[in-house]
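Troubleshooting: if your tokenizer reports a length mismatch, compare your output against this known-good record of 73 residues.
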Amino acid sequence: MNPLHPKKLLLSKWTAVKPVGKDKHFVVVKVIEPDPPDAAVAWVELEALFSRRVQRLAWRALRDPAVWRQGWV
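Known-good structure output:
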């Protein structure tokens, strides 16, 4: 897997290994900036392509290959 950096995640594409409902493909629509600007980014918002449902997720969870795959597979 390619190294991830939170500043480069915006509009990146992801596939859930085990879909929930009919949601399998997602896009990062927002990188949530921390209150103190010099703190590390911790959260992103993913939007499902099929249902347009938005979920908040710790960006480091995207590194788990058992749950997420980078790109639309």
